[in-house]
Amino acid sequence: MTTRGSERVSFLRALAILKRLQEGPATNEQLIEAVLQTVGADAYPPAAGAQQAAFKRDRQRLRRELGVRWEFVDQQYVLKDAGPYFSLSLPEEALRALAILTVTFSGQSGEHGGIDALLRFLLDRLPEDQRRRMEGMDAGVSFEIFQQVDPNGIPQRVWETVQRAVRSRRELSFRYRSPRYQGEQAYLFRVAPLRIVYQWGHWYLFAYVLRRDPPLQFQGEDYRRFRLFYIQDDDDLRVLPSVVSVLHRRPPRYEVHYRSRLRD
């Protein structure tokens, strides 16, 4: 059983609050719930008044003893500084690498929006002195990868819709316009999506074709890749209610015969 008033448990409660704040903004209730899940169901007194009093003391401990700072915005606590003991302190080489990545990826959206979010997460957890040093650091290099990766950009809605279909294992409908098609006609596809893959400087959706309009002539299963840049951002782009069949949840396998030519 947890001894709620003990110094050890009080310290663990404060650490649980900080851990939850590092994951993102949180309300009073969410922070208390995080403490109960991390420290134990009896970490706080059951009475509401006593619970709030203990919660207030934990916040004060974080501020006064551990140097943690936050803001209270829209009924949520937002972490501003994890303090000198729990900030993410990086060696100089890693700090310079982070500066290079920031120059390359900051402000990106679509397929690279997650990288931008990760960089902001890391930057927010650096000590203030490292943050200032990195801001004044000359990265000296930028990968310039966006000159090679679908340079005209994949629409945000296309990226998010295709991702949602893959993650939820739902069928996907979209209109596809490829330079390979005669007159660059846009064909309407209904597919069983499997995965998104980066290859040869582009992002592709690998999927089984279930239907095409105009009709597509093929025999057996039609497994192919679609370049995300050619998927049209219009009303036909939809995640459908139908769950992807079990038969379509794995890429096809092919039997091959391999002949090795050994040198004498």
Regarding quaternary structure, what we see is single chain
Overall number of strands: 7
Number of domains: 3
Low-confidence stretches: none
Helix content: 25-40%
Query: What is the succession of H and E elements?
Result: HHHEEHHHHHEEEEE
- What's the overall average pLDDT, rounded? 83
What is the first-to-last residue Cα distance? 74 Å
Q: Quickly count the helices.
A: 8
| Percentage of β-strand residues | 15-25%
| Rg over alpha carbons | 26 Å
> For the report, how would you describe the main beta sheet?
5 strands, antiparallel
Features of the shown structure:
single chain; 5-stranded antiparallel beta sheet; alpha+beta; 264 residues
Describe what you observe in this structure.
With 264 residues, the protein is an alpha+beta fold. The chain has three domains: 7-85, Arc Repressor Mutant, subunit A (Orthogonal Bundle); 92-147; 156-248. It contains eight helices and seven strands. It has helices at residues 7-23, 28-38, 48-64, 83-86, 92-105, 113-124, 128-135, 156-168, and strands spanning 69-73, 76-81, 170-177, 186-199, 202-213, 223-227, 238-243. Helix 1 (7-23) crosses helix 3 and helix 5 (92-105) packs antiparallel against helix 6. The longest helix has 17 residues, at 7-23. The radius of gyration is 26 Å and the shape is elongated. It starts with 6 loop residues before the first helix and ends in a 21-residue tail after the last strand. The mean pLDDT is 83.
